[in-house]
Specification:
By secondary structure, this protein is an alpha+beta fold. It has helices spanning 55-67, 164-181, 221-240, 286-294, 300-311, 315-322, 325-338, 341-358, 370-381, 387-400, 404-410, 419-432, 434-441, 446-458, 465-478, and strands at 5-16, 71-72, 75-76, 79-82, 92-95, 102-111, 114-127, 131-135, 140-144, 151-157, 193-203, 213-216, 248-253, 258-264, 274-275, 282-283. The chain is elongated and about 95 Å long. It starts with a strand and ends with a helix.
């Protein structure tokens, strides 16, 4: 009988905090920008420059810690993590090893196996390194220090996850909490949320953990899931063949669906940590914690309960809309203008989701404003345009955030609501189609649909289908 194996997974999640300036200097944290333009002597590690802690970084770290049920170290401090790498200008990174700001928390996740709590060992603040750009054309490496000194929190989980599904559920929950707090945009593709996966396997029932590897270079949930499955299979195959798993850092190549050894895994002593002599300890008062706690925004679970009570929309809609802070904000702001939650929910769930899928976009990439979606809904409600025209106009709103009122006016798309003119058109169409009258009289319902279609064609799609049906029935019943 073949052995059964269990996967044991812990995550180190790095999150870039949404501050305007860096953690220890006043340089901009804005993404992009020409190389080495968001820099100064502090974040490029010039001799004699001194770091000054950005208070906002502490507040955002506290907010994430409180939202993930962590204990707060009210006396915490910074340490130097010493290592040489070309994108690390000081030859050390300022981090927190001995007294991190948050510890012993956890969040509840839900998967097909049910609910469970994933423990959070600690959350610590640190600075990001620069970025190496490898120029294959000129066969050289260039360094950009724009990212150097960007504030990070590292969220270190306990090794509580047992499958890729649990890992994705944990990351998704974490990302939503942080986005709702406004602490980070958590864009994996831009590197503002990065996850390193620590994974080992052991026989089912074993009490000791196996030897773990750490996988880096994971920039999407799909890549993380594939990397977990790939590394699990690699370790099991190695053990089955009588080999040994080596504790090392590995790089995942998503195109080849393989991981490659990068370096042996360092332990804390390899970094020669010691307290940073240039930074004073951070003292966090009870009042400061109470103030942060009091200003915490409504998180997803609370929002879901409120939507059910306040808006009376389906639970599935609530789940999808609150699954993105951007969608939830769009929904609430649109409802505040047009006062019709069901219609707003329908436009988001059907047309918005369809176009997002067609254009392969995330909800965060929606560009249209709540004002323009509300205007479109009100145009339909007032029967100024019909449903088909509304869908056509919405595609323009989705693409370029155009003003639907102006667009309808300028393109002559307003519904023809002149009953007299519509009746005259219908009477003429009926007269021109005697066969359809016979079919209608003999109970063939398709005849009605044909005549409605002919009328819409004649009116260039600008008539109200409800009004057409009403008048057409009156005209036919009189014959």
């Amino acid at each position: 009988m073949s052995k059964q194996y269990e996967t044991v997974i812990g995550l180190e999640v790095h999150v870039e905090l949404a501050t305007k300036t860096k953690i220890f200097c006043s340089c901009s944290t804005e993404f992009g920008g020409a190389p080495n333009t968001h820099t100064c002597p502090v974040c490029t590690g010039m001799p004699g420059s001194l770091p000054v802690l950005n208070k906002k970084v502490v507040e955002l770290a506290l907010a994430v810690g409180l939202a993930t049920n962590c204990q707060i170290n009210q006396y915490c401090k910074f340490d130097r993590k010493n290592y040489f790498y070309p994108d690390n200008p000081q030859n050390y990174q300022i981090s927190q090893l001995y007294l991190p700001i948050c510890h012993d928390g956890g969040i509840e996740i839900e998967t097909s196996a049910g609910k469970k709590v994933v423990g959070i060992h600690e959350i610590h603040m640190e600075e990001d390194a620069g970025k190496l750009i490898h120029d294959e054309w000129d066969d050289c490496s260039l360094v950009d220090f724009n990212r150097s000194g960007v504030p990070l929190i590292e969220i270190v989980s306990e090794p509580d996850m047992r499958s890729a599904e649990e890992v994705i559920a944990y990351l998704d929950k974490l990302r939503l909490i942080i986005q709702y707090l406004g602490a980070s945009d958590c864009k994996l593709q831009e590197g503002s949320m990065r996850a390193d996966v620590n994974l080992s396997v052991r026989e089912v029932g074993a009490s000791e953990y196996g030897t773990r590897t750490e996988m880096k270079n994971l920039n999407s949930f799909k890549a993380i899931a594939r990397a977990i499955e790939g590394e699990r299979a690699r370790q099991i195959e190695l053990i089955e063949e009588g080999g040994q798993v080596i504790q090392e850092t590995r790089r995942w190549d998503d195109t080849k669906e393989q991981s490659y050894a990068m370096r042996s895994k360092e332990d804390a002593q390899d970094y020669r940590y010691f307290p940073d002599p240039d930074l004073v300890p951070v003292m966090i008062s009870d009042e400061w914690i109470s103030s942060i706690r009091g200003n915490q925004p409504e998180l997803r679970n609370e929002k879901m309960v409120r939507y059910k009570e306040q808006y009376d929309i389906p639970e599935y809609d609530i789940s999808i809309i609150t699954g993105s802070k951007h969608l939830a904000d769009l929904f609430e702001e649109t409802v505040a203008i047009c006062k019709n939650p069901k219609k707003v929910s329908n436009w988001i769930m059907v047309e918005t989701m369809r176009l997002l899928k067609e254009h392969d976009l995330e909800p965060e990439q929606i560009r249209f404003s709540p004002e323009n979606l509300a205007k479109l809904i009100l145009l339909v409600e007032s029967k100024a345009i019909n449903g088909n025209v509304a869908k056509e106009v919405f595609e323009k709103v989705f693409d370029k955030d155009i003003d639907p009122e102006k667009y309808v006016e300028e393109n002559g798309l307003k519904s023809v609501n002149d009953e007299g003119a519509l009746r005259a058109t219908i009477e003429r169409i009926v007269e021109e189609n005697p066969k359809s009258i016979e079919d209608y009289k003999s109970g063939k319902t398709k005849a009605m649909g044909f005549l409605v279609g002919q009328t819409m064609k004649e009116m260039k799609g600008k008539a109200d289908p409800g009004m057409i049906n009403k008048i057409l029935k009156e005209v036919l019943d009189q014959l």
